[in-house]
Structure formats: structure tokens, C-alpha cells
Amino acid sequence: MTSTVRLKLSALMFLQYFVWGAWYVTMGTWLGETLHFSGEQIGLAAGSTALAAMISPFFLGMVADRFLATERILSLLHVLGGVVLFFASMQTTFGAFYGVILAYTLCYMPTLALSNSLSFRQMDDPGREFPPIRVLGTIGWIVAGLAIGTLGLEATAMPLRIAGGASLLLGVFCLALPHTPPLERRGPAGAGRHERKPTVVSILGLDALKLLGERSFAVFVLGSFLVCIPLQFYYAFANPFLNELSVTNAAGKMTLGQMSEIFFMLVMPWFFRRLGVKYMLLAGMAAWTTRYALFAYGNNADMVWMLYAGILLHGICYDFFFVTGQIYVDTKAPPDLRAAAQGFIAFVTLGVGMFIGSWASGRVVDAFRLGTGGHDWRGIWLVPAAGALLVLALFALFFRSSEADRESAVERVS
């Protein structure tokens, strides 16, 4: 891979996640404080990404890698998404806003997988070359949060407009990416070109269902699904929570979580060697429980350190659970099922689990709304804390991992 290609892919990742970080983190604050949407409505809006994550595999399987070059699809989706985001920023009723933001996420979510696949195809050694490029995505998210928070735009529609402008810029930039045409599908040697129509089973990764025959893998899938329900409380309501407590530059301070994510990603090989898969996953689940407990008892006065600690736990929460889970799936699935297995676990967790969590978190926030217009945040955060703790206990009892799993995981992250 040439330095020019590396620079272009780094810029792609930066802008890809700058766009997402610019509108998603603070959307709940704008919807709640300015448009006065209910908690359930805010939760459903946040869950639009999860719903799109369940639908986008069909687009990828049916269209993306069959008819058009990847960079052109990316350009089209980001330009269209930018226009839709501007339109979303002008909506003031829930029905209209939800329809538009869902349309946007249907444009955006497929680009996550497409940007990764385009990058992989330009690399000689993806295992070595991709991580330093992907980290630019996390930096893009951090820059977006710092900009929105520093400018004091969290309770306005401006973050959506900034994201919309960045999306248009990214759409134009994608045309300068290396040409990445559709992969040619061939049948047996000498049989010439052969198109195999994708099916619902292959698109959703349901070929990987056979892996559920192993008890530990089935427990992993079930535990991952269940723990994603309380996880969505953070993504949907952390920013409104901090703003209601009058934490200054809440969006900027939340980027401390992404900074810790980078740090823990770097030290993951060390932890894998000493903890293994099971205890890495348990540490991730425990971090989510601890984070919510810290939020429940923290405040913007003498206990403000609890809020910072809860944010900084994001590195363990995300890397030890999601990244470890992806590595575990890769170690358990045979080579011909790895893509299907990753697609299946993403559908179950980032799709179904997060969608249910979005709706449930909104209902809980509404249930703890005070007559004065604020919320009983201690009661709210103790609900996902208890949920994550319950899943942690069940996972600790029933999940088993072998020494071979540890060695395979260490090999993949070293």
C-alpha cells in the first residue's frame, strides 16, 4: 500500500466517524431540551441506527458488492445522507423527525462495512495496516465531540447540520478513493463467471447458526444480546444526563471515553495473555455495571469524579466486550463461516439488542421523570446497572473458554 493510499484511507476513516460523532452523541439533548420529546421518543430516535443495522445487510448483500464500485456507492450514500441530515435538522415533530432520521441511518450504516471492505482490499497486510488507519476514525469522533461541546451547540440542531456538511464533503472525497470494483464471483475452476444469488440466510449470517451447537458459543451469543439492552442507556441518554446536571462542555468531556478506548486497544494483547477470553468479557460487562453505578451516585459537585470515572471506563466497556467478542467469534468459527458469524453476531447485538435497548431505555427515563421537569437519574441508572450485573452473573456461571481460545485470541491481537 502506497503512502498516498494510506493517507486517503486515513482521511476516509476520520470523516466517516466525524460525521457519526457530530450528530449522534448530542441528539438526545436537542430532542429533549429544545423539542421536548419524551424519553421513549428519544430512545427510538437513538435506536434508528440499530434498526438500520438490521436492514443494511440486505443492501450490502443484494447491491453493494455486485453492481457498483465501492467508492461510488460510498459517494452516493454520503451525499444523499448529507442532504437528508439537513432536512432532519428542520423537523420539529417526532413522527416527521423519526422518519427522516431513519432514512438517514439507512444511508449511513451500510457505509461502515463498505469503508472497511474498501480499505481491506487496498492493503497488503490488513492485520498490520488497518489498525493505525482505523484509529483515525476514533480521532474523528473525538474531534467532533470537542468541537460541538466547545461551541456550546449540544441543545441545537447545528450538530446535525455540521454532520450533514461533513457528509457532503465526504461524499465528494470518496470519488478520489482508489477504484474498488465489484469482486467477480466464479464457480469451480474453469467454469467461468458464476453469479450466486444471495439469500436471506447468507445475508444475515444465519449460516453461522450451526455454531450454536457448542454450548459456550450459544451462551456467548445470548449473553451478548442481553447485555446490549442495558448498554443502550449510555448511548441514548449519557449526554442529556450530563447536561441536565449542568456539566459544562459535556460532549467534549465525553470524548475522554474514546481517548481511553485508544489506550485500552493498545494494551489488549497484554490483558489477553493474562486474563483470557472469558475474563476479558467479564471485565467488560463489569465495567458497564460499574459505569452505571458511578453515574447513579455521581453529581456535578463533590462527586463529579464519579462522572469522569464512568466516562473513562468506556475503553474497558467497549474494547473488552465488543472487540474481545469479535475476536472470540473469529477464533471459534471455521474460515468459511467467519464472515457469516461476524455478520450474525452484529445483527443480534448491534441490531436487535441495541434496538430493544433503545426502546426500553426511553420507557425507563419516562418512568423516572419528575414533576419539576427533571429526572431521577439515580433510579434511571440503577436499572441498567442491575441488568448488566444479572447478565454478568449468568455469563460467569455458564460460559466456558479454553486455553486454545486464549492462545488464538493473543495471536490475533499481537
Give a verbal description of the structure:
This protein is mostly helical and 414 residues long. The chain folds into two domains: 3-174, Growth Hormone, Chain: A; 200-413, MFS general substrate transporter like domains (Growth Hormone, Chain: A, Up-down Bundle). The chain has helices at 3-24, 27-34, 39-46, 48-64, 70-88, 94-121, 126-150, 158-174, 200-203, 215-244, 250-254, 256-297, 304-312, 314-332, 338-367, 377-398, 403-413. Helix 5 (70-88) packs antiparallel against helix 8 (158-174) and helix 7 (126-150) crosses helix 12.
Summarize the model shown.
With 414 residues, the chain is mainly α.
Level-1 CATH class name of the largest domain = Mainly Alpha
Distance between the termini: 21 Å
What Rg do the Cα atoms give?
Answer: 21 Å
Q: Which regions have little confidence, pLDDT < 50, spanning 5+ residues?
A: 186-194
Name the overall outline. Answer: globular
Instruction: Classify the fold: give the CATH topology of the largest domain.
Output: Growth Hormone, Chain: A
Arithmetic mean of pLDDT: 88
Q: Could you say what the CATH architecture of the largest domain is?
A: Up-down Bundle
Oligomer: single chain
N to C succession of SSEs: HHHHHHHHHHHHHHHHH
CATH homologous group name of the largest domain: MFS general substrate transporter like domains
Number of helices: 17
Kindly estimate the percentage of residues that lie in beta strands according to DSSP: under 5%
Strand elements, count: 0
Helix/strand/pairing category: mainly alpha
Helix amount, in percent? over 70%
Biggest sheet statistics: none
The count of domains is 2
